[in-house]
Amino acid sequence: MMQRRIAALSSLRLFMVLQTRCHCERSEATRVGMRAIDRPRLLRSARNDMGRCWRLTSVTVLAGVVMLLAAAFPQPAAADTVFLSTQLRPIEEAQKMRDVILKDYQGHVTYVVEQPAQLPVRVQAEMQGGTHTISAIGALHGELEPLVTLQALTPLDTLAAKLTDRGIPAALMALGKLGTSQQMYIPWMQATYFMVANKQALPYLPKGADLNALTYAQLADWAAAIHAKTGRRLLGFPAGPQGLMHRFVEGFLYPSYTGGLVTTFRSPAAEDMWTQFAALWKDVNPDSTRYGFMQEPLLSGDVWIAFDHVARLLDALRQKPDDFVAFPAPAGPKGRGYMPVLAGLAIAKDAPDPSGAASLIDYLTQPAAQLATEKAVGFFPVVNVAPPADLDPGTKLAAAAIAATQSAKDALPALLPVGLGTHGGEFDKVMLDTLQLIVLRHEKPQAALAREAPILQKILDEAKAPCWAPDPPSTGACQVK
Amino acid sequence: MRRGAATPYLLIAPATALLCVLFLVPLVQTIALAFRANGTISLDNFASMTGDINFNDAVVNTVEVIVLSVPLQLALALGMAMMLQHLKRGRDIVIWIWSIPLGISDLAAGLVWLAILTDHGYLNTVLYHLGIIDGPRSWLTYETPLALLIAIVVEETWRATAIVLVILAAGVQLVPKEYAEAADVFGASPWQRFTRVMLPLLRPSIQSALILRTVLAFEMFATVVALGGQNFPVLMSETFNAQYFQQNYGVAAAYAVLIMAASLAATLVFLRLLRTPPEQLP
Fold first, then answer.
1. Which of A186, A246, A426, A481 is deepest in the core (most CB within 10 A)?
2. How far is CA A102 from each of CA A22, A69, A296, A362, rounded to the nearest angstrom?
3. What domains are there in chain B, each with its CATH number?
4. Angular region, A378: left φ>0, alpha ψ -120 to 50, beta rest
């Protein structure tokens, strides 16, 4: 790569030298032309000179541009294992991955990140182009699933057998099969969503309510009591452009009230749910439609109770662990719906360095690397390991809330939408549009659901996506009832 | 053809080729994308676009901001250009200061105004110290659509008046002083001089400024997103959402075609309405 840069630099220098020479020739020709008698002939010769100069320059420029481009898009050295991830994308997190989590890894890894939506596009492009650079892939369960359809992953049964000593729960390993008979990915790290409350809100908690067994009705009473006593609406949701409100609707609200998502989308239970949620919204901070990461309004005091993804709450818990409590999302009539977030590690088919990728997966699932991940980026281990003694109190709060969510008696896990491929964004939009129509524009739930249900069905039909938990399995595309 | 005759064409060839590759080809592709769905030519993308719950709001909001802010910008810039005319010294410094917003990126401008108007922003701090409000007030939520609209119009005016001013100030400089002096001789009042002499002579500049501002206003995005987010959908933000969040490239292309058609229509209207007969050119 160094050589390539030097080549580019030297071609640049050549170009500059030529430019100077051309410039000299040009000014000399003009000077001669000024005092000569036969001006047309001299001017013609000057023009010819300039033509030659122009051709020479353009060839050099072209060569320079090609070399600069080659230097600007470096190919990793042959010894590097390319690890492409849709997780830990922000600069700080990616840097922690490179400098902290991968610090003790023996091989050479090039850690590159990619937007989730671009992952299948990139993998497919490599398959079609025949040039394979990616060896290891790290992504969420739902993001790896389309890669199985593309036949872009190598089965990892041998590796999985080797890693049995890690103590990854069987349920998580089973998810890694992605509906096939072979292991397609190895679980990597996990997270979920939960709620955080400022301790100032606790005195207003309804009598008899237990934070770890809260219901949506109690949450509504709680927020209403705070509104009535303080005059402020201090319950907040991440419903802004960068927020994850759609996950709340898909993985928490719907499963808790209806026991499903797609099949029960316009059920009477869903109508009741929306009516109650619209009523609860009267006590929700109206700035919620601007919030992206709830840790910010929690820290500023604009919100006392908030729901969000652990990664978007952790800063608040870490900065002021004594000011906040963390607890599972509420339960509805059908249980405590929650969305576990599971990221996995896979190996690309025809990977240039499959053995490097396998040893990387081995490394990342070791207890030490799992704990380093937890400490550095707030994703929680999938392996059986005790939390380290020096874990900061904020992360401990988060870990306890996640454990309480998973071990709740009425826990009802709801998967991230699976099988939607590139239609994921449109699916999320249906949920957000429904919320907007009913909660913000005060439309009747029945009318709004009747409007959105055909759009939802069309998306599922086009993606040919079968139902996912907690909806009962279907043979064809999932059907809105 | 003689070599000499080909030179100009050779010289403009790279720019032309670049425009074709980077502008015309994507344009044709975008139009093709907008009018295709499921492999056939259809209007499905446009139907999805107009059927979207935010479409009407996006159209209304975009038009509202244009109708309110562009005339305001024009009036302010005209006033500022007239004042500049009377400055004996320091004209350049004043132009420089007035065009500072021009040098700030759209998003930065949006964030500046967000810092002013947010719950804990400067506006609320001032109002609180003056005793007008007793705590943080929200100005930019879905519950305060009027305040949000005013904020965006004010912000757009602040940001974009400078470009209109620069165009008009250049136009004013081209108007010969003799016209004003002649009007003076015939006893015209300052207002008459402005409306009867200056405005008609400034027509070509006003036309350019209006076309530029209106076309850019159809494309407003970062400032509105910074201030309004999803509370204030505009055509461009819906295009962005369709492209990046919903990954519905056909619908995004349909929005792009709509914005282009609206911009072209506005340009045509200004070209016709503000046409200057050749004999009236200064």
1. A186
2. 52, 30, 30, 12
3. 35-280 (1.10.3720.10)
4. left
What residue spans define the domains of chain A?
Answer: 2-72, 81-191+341-400, 193-338+410-463
Instruction: Write out the H or E segment, with its range, that includes residue B41.
Output: strand B40-41
Write down the pTM of the prediction.
0.77
Fold classification of A81-191+341-400 is D-Maltodextrin-Binding Protein; domain 2 (3.40.190)
**How many contacts (CB atoms, under 8 Å) link A and B?**
53
Cβ distance A308 to A384 under 8 Å? Answer: no
Query: Distance of alpha carbon A347 from its chain centroid, rounded?
Result: 19
Chain B interface includes A57 (CB < 8 A): no
Higher pLDDT, B1 or A198: A198
Q: Residue type for B78, please?
A: L
Q: Which of A232, A426, A440 sits opposite B142 (nearest CB)?
A: A440
How close B66 comes to chain A (CA, Å)? 24
**Cβ-based interface (< 8 Å): residues of B facing A:** 3-4, 7, 53, 119-120, 135-136, 138, 140-143, 225, 229-231, 241, 244-248
Which residues of A fall within a CB distance of 8 Å from B142?
Answer: 286, 289, 440
ipTM over 0.90: no
User: CA quadruple B46, B51, B57, B60: dihedral positive or negative?
Assistant: positive
**Token pair listed for B33:** 């994308």
Q: Which residues, other chains included, contact A191 with Cβ-Cβ below 8 Å and sequence gap of 6+?
A: A309, A310, A311, A341, A343, A378, A379, A380, A402
Tell me the two tokens of residue A204.
């207003």
Q: Does A287 touch chain B (CB under 8 A)?
A: yes
SS3 A126: helix
Residue of A244, A287, A440 for testing the chain B interface, max B β-carbons within 10 Å: A287
Per-residue pLDDT tens digits for A45-86 = 545 554 454 554 555 555 555 555 555 554 544 568 999 999
| Domains A81-191+341-400 and A193-338+410-463 fall in the same CATH topology | yes
Q: CATH code for A193-338+410-463?
A: 3.40.190.10
